[in-house]
């Protein structure tokens, strides 16, 4: 349950920051800017497969938790 809540809250925080500040702060030469550019390149190259691999980890963790309970 904690994994699901953390993933959800992390997504909400990213959406909030993107809406409030836009992409301009991510395009700067900072660590976050470099990570953002790398993530964007992966998403453009692999598209839906990249998103699926990123999200499937949470599905596995939740499945294991429900099986153990």
Structural class comes to: mainly alpha
Q: What is the arithmetic mean of pLDDT?
A: 77
Q: Count of helices?
A: 3
Q: Please report the total strand number as a whole number.
A: 0
Task: Give the oligomeric state of the chains in this entry, treating copies of one chain as homo and distinct chains as hetero.
Answer: single chain
SSE string = HHH
Q: How big is the Rg?
A: 15 Å
The major β-sheet equals: none
How widely separated are the two ends? Answer: 11 Å
Detailed description of the structure:
The chain has 69 residues and is mainly α. 83% of the residues lie in helices and 0% in strands. The protein has helices at 2-21, 31-46, 48-68. It is extended. The relative contact order is 0.10.
List keywords for this structure.
69 residues; mainly alpha
Summarize the structure.
The chain has helices at residues 2-21, 31-46, 48-68. With 69 residues, it is mostly helical.
Walk me through the topology.
Blueprint: H1 2-21, H2 31-46, H3 48-68
